[in-house]
Prior knowledge:
Layout (H helix, E strand, L loop, with lengths): L5 H8 L12 E3 L5 E3 H11 L20 E2 L1 H13 L3 H4 L11 E3 L4 E3 L1 H5 L8 E3 H109 L3 H6 L1 H10 L8 H44 L10 E7 L2 E7 L13
Antiparallel strand pairs: 1-2, 1-3, 4-5, 4-6, 7-8
Amino acid sequence: xxxxxxxxxxxxxxxxxxxxxxxxxxxxxxxxxxxxxxxxxxxxxxxxxxxxxxxxxxxxxxxxxxxxxxxxxxxxxxxxxxxxxxxxxxxxxxxxxxxxxxxxxxxxxxxxxxxxxxxxxxxxxxxxxxxxxxxxxxxxxxxxxxxxxxxxxxxxxxxxxxxxxxxxxxxxxxxxxxxxxxxxxxxxxxxxxxxxxxxxxxxxxxxxxxxxxxxxxxxxxxxxxxxxxxxxxxxxxxxxxxxxxxxxxxxxxxxxxxxxxxxxxxxxxxxxxxxxxxxxxxxxxxxxxxxxxxxxxxxxxxxxxxxxxxxxxxxxxxxxxxxxxxxxxxxxxxxxxxxxxxxxxxxx
Length: 348
């Protein structure tokens, strides 16, 4: 059973949601809620430095400059004050029309003496209204203090969280720079390793082309020479025996000297040099495969370690070099190392 006095509803409508007192110089926000001009101004001054302002009641966005004076509401508040409403005349039990001066703690509602004696409340704990009000006021006051403390701490909490997020952004940028630096070094390292075998292949290519030109020149000269010598020998063979045998020694000497001189088999030497480069390509292919297999597994291992220890682990992947002489070309093997950067070994 609760009191339902119309005047009480009017009084609540004329109360400021911030100070919980009658509105003083009431102003209306864009959302329609009303506040004391001084209360809402203080509220705006306190919170405008921490982001967009919000209505204390509905949390809609508000602007400090849009405080519209509500003269009509101010007049109503003034008239209510002038009436000096007496709650004791209106605060009557609807059932028994007696004064509600008791409070039932089980049902948490105001009751009159007749209600207290009724079967509905007879077994309940009933106290005087004033004593109960003070008790609950003390409880609410404790909650109010706690809420005010939390409200005062909100700006500091917001600043702390923003500081943490800014630190995280800085760390993220630092990690990005590390990754870019590592891969820049890796790209440079691979370009250096690529330069030597390409230079050797270029040198071999020039040698092959030179031999090709020399062979073509030599053959182009030998063909007409041999044709001329063959013609001379055929003419000599057709001569009478006496004349043929007369210059036999010179003829035989010319035949021996006129034979086609086989060029030095440079192609075999060039093919041997090319064969010396092939094992290095195989070694580089195997090294690349090992690197591609090792990198994801190492990253996954570090990720599991990080999750297991519940802490951040900085992982830096660097390429190190080990050189092995294979047929005159140095083979580079790339590895994965933990921690900071490592120096490359071996001549390039």
